[in-house]
Structure formats: C-alpha cells, structure tokens
Amino acid sequence: MKVKVISRSTDDFTRERSQDLHKVFRNYDPNLRTQEKAIEYTRALNAAKLEKIFARPLIGAMDGHIDAISCMAKNPNHLKGIFSGSMDGDIRLWDMATRRTTCRFNGHQGPVRGLTVSTDGNVLVSCGNDCSVKLWKVASTFESSDTVEDDEPLANYVWKYAFRAVDHQWESNIFATGGAQVDIWDHNRSNPVNSFEWGTATIVSLRFNPGEPNVLATSASDRSITLYDLRMSSPARKVIMKTKTNAICWNPMEPMNFTAANEDCNCYSYDARKLDEAKCVHQDHVSAVMDIDYSPTGREFVTGSYDRTVRIFRYNGGHSREIYHTKRMQRVFCVKYSCDGTYVISGSDDTNLRLWKANASEQLGVLLPRERKKQEYLDAVKNRYKHLPDVKRIIRHRHLPKPIYKAAGLRRTMVEAERRKDERRRAHSAPGSTSVQPFRKRRIIQEIE
To answer: Region Disordered: what ranges (predicted)?
Structure first.
C-alpha cells in the first residue's frame, strides 16, 4: 500500500520573528476564482469613493502681504523656498514647511511684475512698474526662525519704460526682461547687451527654453506669440491669435513644446516647430487664464484663472484633472509647482499664498511599505475599471461653486449654439463654398516667419 504524504520545508512557512506576518501562498489560477473580476470591480468602486472622502487638497495659507500677489518664483537651491511679489512693491521669501516669511526685499516703488532666480539660486532678479530691474543676494542657508529684511540690492538698473516680465537663462549670467521690447541683460553690465522688438506691442510674459537656452518665447498685448533666438539679430517666428496670451510655459521634459494661457478661457499647447496649429486645446476655465506652470515631470501643468479657481491638467488632456477653490480665494494671478512636483502654490488677489497638494487625496508624511503597496494596488484597480460608468462618474465628479457652475453651463450653451449655427450655414451654402476649420486652428489668425 502506498501512502502519499505532503512534505514541505518548515522554512517556507515559519516566521523568523514573532512580529512578522504569516506567509500565505496563493494560487492565481483564474479558474479557481471565478468572481475575481467582480471583487476587483467592487474594490475599484470603493477606492474611488474613498479617494473622494479623503480628498483634502488645501494644506494652508501664507498671509503677510498687504496687496494682491502678482508674481512668484521658485528657489532651485531650497525645496521649501518660494518667492512672491505683490502690487505694493513687497518681495518675500517664504518657508513652505512653516508657512512663514523668512526674508523680505524692499526696494520697488510700485507693483512687482516679474521675479526669477538664477540657476545657482544665489541671485534674485525682480522688475516692476517703477522702470527698474533689481538684483538681490539670496542667503545660502535657509533660516526660518527670524525674518530678515534686505533693503540694499546688489544692483539696480533704471531703464526708460516699465517692465512686465523677467526670466533667467539656464546656467549663465543672462536674463531677459519684457516691456516695450525684449531686453537681454548681463549681471555685470548696467545696460542691455541686446534688444529685440517686432511691432509696437507690450511684452506680457516671456520664458527661456529649458533645453535650448538661447531660445526665448514671448507673448504680447497684440495677441501674438513670438519665438526669439539670441544667436540671431532678429526674431525667428510669430503666430497671431484672436485673443491675448497671458502666460507661457515650456514643457521641461519635451522642450520643443510649450503651453499658452489665453484670455479666451483655454490653454493651447504648441510645437515650436509648427505654430500654425495647436497640438491640444485644454478647456474648462470659465474666465481668462492668468498664469501657468509645468510640473517637473512634464506630465501635468497647473493654471490659475480670473474665475477664482486653480486647475490641474494633463499635458495631453483636453479637460482638467483637478479643480481647487475656497470661499475666500479671489482672482488667481500666479501659480507654481513645487520643485519636487508634490505641491502647488497659488497667489491671489486676496493677498494670500495658498499651498495645495498636487494629488488631493495623497497622504502626507512617510508611508510604510505595506501602505505604499496597497495604494499602488488601489490605483491600478481604479485605472483598470475607470471606463465603467459608476467608477468613471465618481472619479470625474467635482464640486463646483455655484457661480462657476452656472458660468460653465452658460459657456456650454454658447459653444453649442455656435456649433449649430455653423452646421446650418454649411447646410444652406453651395457645396464647397464653406470649409470646416479644425478646432485647434480656429483661434489662430496667421503665422509669420
């Protein structure tokens, strides 16, 4: 007679310490668990609901300014440092960990319109309506215990007109300012080393390309977006849109692409090599988009709007992934991603900077390995079943303030009415007399080279 005995090593199932978990061996054969998909669907549904329950995006507000915040800049040297400038000429360095002011720079006699920091993080450049550009020394150590006031800049350049924007070139002493024209400055010279102009419009915003430092993109009050090459004596290319662009930001991971925040409530992503058509149109705001900033990963960007909301978009998504708002937050003039992409900072008309989580339901602090694995599993399950109606509805739902909800409905009605009007015009016209223009080209008037 044969006797079959199950034999196994005690090392496979014995715990090394009493605190360890019992080892469980699973057979993942789908034929043994016919209800596995139903169980996963229920888990995805519960995970989507729990994500909404634990969504607490607002971390806190940083108050101290006495006028509207007009611009911000990140400090490359310090992860928790952020500069802000207000309409009363006050410039502050904030510690985001304690949400307190660590340093103040007093010197401008009017609104501060632009802030930027050198690549090494040691020099802060500011410009404003008082026709001056100032260079400030930034402390090498980040002290947050006492507030330090600095009234003496390293350099003060007074020019002929007011400035509206400034940006620093990567790994050099060159920075650019925008006003009546584009001026290129050097830290060691009191006059611009070069100047560019194309028309008589006022420059509203400008940004250096992170991959090709000699390429500069600007937007002007004549509804144009212009590309400059510092190695040439003239501008390179220009595209004219139907409405003005308030801000521009390059994608740090795809330096040939940039996104423009427009007055018509939309953002337009362009390829710098082909400006006659937008790559993607990002829509959801109900008022002018005032500022934009990309995440360090290049996969998402954040926008601040005149409709008192902050939205987060995917770089290739037509609609926003997240919307942030509070009862007290007013018109948002500037937004920034933190240097690690974990937080979003917004500056608004109510004199406050607000610190938000980039992922509304993300847990703050250190996660245990088991907690991290469970969160990754829940995210994977939600992503697998996100196309199903119930999960999709829960994931997409966002609570909106009543004025924004009504404005969004009115905007949808206007867009739908315009679409029907175009269809009827084509239906009652001779064949071939009217052309259908793609949505990504409708706001572009012409491209000039």
So the answer is: 417-439
Q: Return the closest-CA partner of residue 332 out of 300, 291, 294.
A: 291
Buried b (16+ CB within 10 A) or exposed e, 104-133: ebebbeebbbbbbbbeebbbbbbbbbbbbb
Contact yes or no for 208/167 (Cβ under 8 A): yes
Nearest to 239 by CA among 212, 208, 279: 279
Confidence check: pLDDT of 152 > 90: no
Count CB neighbours of 413 within 10 A: 10
- Give the amino acid at 248: I
Residue 215 has pLDDT above 80, yes or no: yes
> What's the pLDDT tens digit per position in 216-233?
999 999 999 999 998 887
Q: Which one, of 180, 184, 216, lies nearest residue 201 by Cα?
A: 180
Cα separation, 309 vs 285, in Å, equals 8
Torsion sign (Cα): 393, 394, 395, 396: positive
Strand partners, 1: none
Residue (of 206, 188, 190, 210) closest to 198 by Cα position: 206
- In DSSP terms, 196 is beta-bridged to 182
Measured on CA atoms in the order 160, 166, 169, 172, is the torsion positive or negative?
A: positive
Helix, strand and coil in the chain, % to nearest 5: 15, 35, 45
Q: What is the pLDDT of residues 25-68, one digit of tens each?
A: 777 787 887 888 899 999 999 999 999 998 999 999 999 899 99
298: left (phi over 0), alpha (psi -120 to 50) or beta: left
Q: Which domains does the chain possess?
A: 35-57+368-397 (no CATH), 58-357 (2.130.10.10)
Residues β-bridged to residue 304: 291, 310
Which tokens is 106 given?
């007093």
Neighbouring residues of 362: CB distance < 8 A, sequence distance ≥ 6:
342
Q: What is the pLDDT of residue 142?
A: 66
> Which phi and psi angles does 420 have, rounded to 5°?
-65, -35
Distance CA 216, CA 223 (A): 17
List Cα–Cα distances, 403 to 288, 309, 319, 327, 330, in angstroms: 15, 11, 19, 12, 13
For 177, list phi and psi in degrees, rounded to 5: -125, 150
**Pairing outcome for strands 182-186 and 310-314:** unpaired
Identify which of 57, 58, 99, 90 has the alpha carbon closest to the alpha carbon of residue 72.
90
Rg of the chain over Cα atoms, rounded to whole angstroms, equals 26
